[in-house]
Amino acid sequence: MAGDGGGTYPVIGGGDASKRPVAGAPSSSDGACPDGYDPLVWQARVDLAACYHLCDQMDMNEGICNHLTVMVPGTTDRFLCIPYGLLWTEVTASNLLLLDDAGNVLEGEGTIDATAFFIHKAIHKTGVTCVLHTHQPYATALCCTKGFRLRMCHQNSLRFFDEVAYDPVFNGLVLDDTEGDRLVAVMGGKSVLFHANHGVIVCGPSVAEAFDDMYYLERCCKVQILAMSSGEDLNIVSDEVAKKFKEDCASDGGKANWAKLHFDALKRGLMRGPGRIFRE
Length: 280
Fold this sequence. Notes:
Layout: E1 12-14, H1 39-57, E2 67-71, E3 78-81, E4 97-100, E5 105-107, E6 110-112, H2 114-124, E7 130-134, H3 137-143, H4 155-158, E8 164-167, H5 177-187, E9 192-195, E10 199-204, H6 207-229, H7 239-250, H8 254-270
Parallel strand pairs: 8-9
Antiparallel strand pairs: 1-6, 2-3, 2-7, 3-4, 4-5, 7-10, 9-10
Helix pairs in contact: 2-5, 3-6, 6-8
């Protein structure tokens, strides 16, 4: 159950976090949906597990910290998350925890990091399907600057035109509903949050779309930092062009389709290496 954040670090879930959690859902070594298991729920597990592996491959995680979640299809109060203590290369579809919004672990064994619970629960309550919170190097580096703004200086940046919220207040660890709700209010429905002195949150209607945005966010932040390091002024694209670029990307479901193609290709790449365990 969730703690109240009253001076102690809340414990969400149960079990020995020092041991690798065992599977709480049926597993399938060939990636197929196990008998008797909802195919949509299993696919959500597979996609989220793949996302953990891909973030590890691309240096978009930090130790056993940071957290990625997805709502369980067909529910409004349940989501999947990593058990705290796993390396992201150990994540499989079957060892993800399934929690409700009261902090009860309904499938799986282990605990969820309290900051993950309070941040992600609050955002999922607004109807967001997938929430990715990372301390990826270049985006986080921008969060550590006084200006901490994503500038419209590169094509990849334009997909985030008017889509980034900025939180200049760092209150430490998110250990209760108050701070989680505050972050939601600051986001104001935008899909990306830059949190000063901390990191970023990226939201999307699917794991594929959220991951695609996070990937390109890190790429454009890297380009911006490299350009800033030259000492030259950034060459900013006009709001008119940036807005039109973003609209063109989204037209006819193009951006969502590109995200799916990108994510599917990366999952095929995982299947050629040790990351293939994400489907188990």
